[in-house]
Specification:
Blueprint: H1 13-23, H2 30-39, E1 46-47, H3 48-57, H4 66-78, E2 82-88, E3 91-96, E4 104-108, E5 114-117, H5 120-132, E6 143-146, H6 149-152, H7 160-163
Parallel strand pairs: 4-6
Antiparallel strand pairs: 1-3, 2-3, 4-5
Length: about 160
């Protein structure tokens, strides 16, 4: 994963989520706030079960249920704070979409590893294609699937004498 500089944001993810919840007639509970804090503590790709495990390791004294994590992830996605990047091992993988620049992904179909990259040429090509059909593009997501270098290496051969044992 490449490390991109975060974008300057006017409102914290917690405050943006509080505003979103208010539009739905809900409030930001302590549990939801803990989830937002954990999600935005680093820019790692994660699935819901990984987040549940990370939440269990917290020493906050507050237990956050699995169902609260799953529901909150959906609301964070609806609020524009998270996005689903890919589906690996039958699980949706999430990443921040707030305060982070546009980027795309290479995804290994063997191990599920995600590799982030930025390329202005791709964005330009998409803008030109959109212009050709009078399409107003406001964002894009590119996911390229293949096999990473590590997974494409041949397995290490064992010494033939070891095969005789």
């Amino acid at each position: 994963m490449l490390n991109f500089e975060s974008l300057e944001i006017a409102v914290s993810p917690t405050e943006k989520f509080r505003e979103y919840l208010a539009t739905k007639g809900m409030r930001l509970t302590q549990e939801r706030e803990l989830i937002v804090a954990e999600v935005f503590s680093s820019h790692e790709h994660f699935d819901a079960d990984q987040l549940v495990e990370r939440m269990k390791l917290q020493k906050t004294g507050r237990r956050v249920s699995r169902s609260t994590v799953y529901r909150t992830l959906g609301w964070l996605e609806d609020a524009g704070l998270l996005r689903k990047v890919a589906r690996t091992n039958d699980r949706d993988v999430f990443e921040h979409d707030y305060g982070y620049p546009q980027h795309d992904h290479f995804i290994c179909k063997s191990c599920g590893e995600l590799f982030e990259f930025q390329n202005d040429d791709i964005a330009e090509i998409l803008e030109k294609l959109a212009d050709q059909i009078n399409f107003r593009m406001n964002e894009h997501r590119l996911e390229v699937y293949g096999i990473c270098d590590e997974c494409s290496r041949p397995p290490q051969r064992r010494h033939k004498k070891l095969d005789l044992i």
